[in-house]
Amino acid sequence: MSNTLPMHAKRSKWLCSGPILKVLLNMAGGGIENDGEEMNGEITTNPDPILGGPALRLLSCLCRLAQRDESLFSSQEEGGSAHSRHLLVGFHRALHSFIYCNPRNSELERLALVDAISSFASSSPDAMTIVLDDPVLREGWLSLSVAQSKLKAVVLQSVANAIDPPKEVDANGDCVLPWSVPSNQIAMKLFNALSVVNESGGFGDDATKLVLTNAISPFVEIRLSSYALLKAIAKRGEGAQILLSHAGFFEFLTQRETSAETTKEGREAKHDIVIAILNSDARGLLADDTVKKLEDIVRQGPHYVKAVPWELATE
């Protein structure tokens, strides 16, 4: 974070200054030189074969700093807007260079790519728009095809974090809220893009169906990341309505006796989805019996188990 030790504000601004970013972007393949490859009509540098990956990961970390401190990439000083545009364009080129130079990337490389794209997209509304309007970056970030369980979980969790950025606690114990929280329109566009990218999986344009399918996965990490994404969407009034309008979602939340979730973390995560719906703007639009059922679940707690009569238990 840009306001905690040892990453205090001055050090953050130095890391995000023009000279440092220029070197990192050149290493990652986001610079413009005379001896590079042509991309979108420009001659761009090739990623450094040794330092390109680490430079991209460092740029991803700087993007996460920008989520907490808007001034890092949108300085009020003269030339600040040009500096911000240079970073957006350069990082965009670097991501394309990484994909171009790693057409058959391994799972580790794909994990690094997902982290880089999601961090870049979450750094500002402009960056999110760039990613969502770029089919190559959308595919690189959101594709769940031929993905192992860990990679699927990382993709789903990264989308959840982009829609609902997690809070951070600084060195003084104070809660720091991210400034770059996507609007409802952008959040739902990202959620829908998840189904568009994975349309070949048989989900069509139904992102809720895709996430619910993963929410009953036998792999714990996939279930937990799916719950996180459902919670992030449920916090949005429009998102909660979309989820509840999907056949099977309400039963997924309320049928606790037949739930396949056996872990403590999973039960608590599902419980948080119910709380998010009740705290959203959609609550006033729900039927009274629906609200009562959800309130009963909240009152009972995440680990509620229906009591079995003694006579049945001893048969």
Written description of the protein model:
The chain is mainly alpha-helical and 315 residues long. The chain has a domain at 1-142. It has 16 helices and 4 strands. It has helices spanning 9-15, 18-28, 52-68, 80-101, 107-122, 125-132, 135-142, 149-163, 184-197, 207-215, 220-234, 237-244, 249-254, 264-279, 288-300, 310-313, and strands at residues 32-39, 42-44, 168-169, 175-176. The strands form 2 sheets. It has a two-stranded antiparallel sheet with strand order 1-2. Strands 3-4 form a two-stranded antiparallel ribbon. The chain is globular, with a radius of gyration of 22 Å.
Features:
315 residues; mainly alpha; two-stranded antiparallel ribbon; two-stranded antiparallel sheet; 16 helices; 4 strands; globular; PSMD5
Layout of strands and helices, then pairs:
Layout: H1 9-15, H2 18-28, E1 32-39, E2 42-44, H3 52-68, H4 80-101, H5 107-122, H6 125-132, H7 135-142, H8 149-163, E3 168-169, E4 175-176, H9 184-197, H10 207-215, H11 220-234, H12 237-244, H13 249-254, H14 264-279, H15 288-300, H16 310-313
Antiparallel strand pairs: 1-2, 3-4
Can you give me a brief rundown of this structure?
Pfam families: Proteasom_PSMB. Helix content is 60%, strand content 5%.
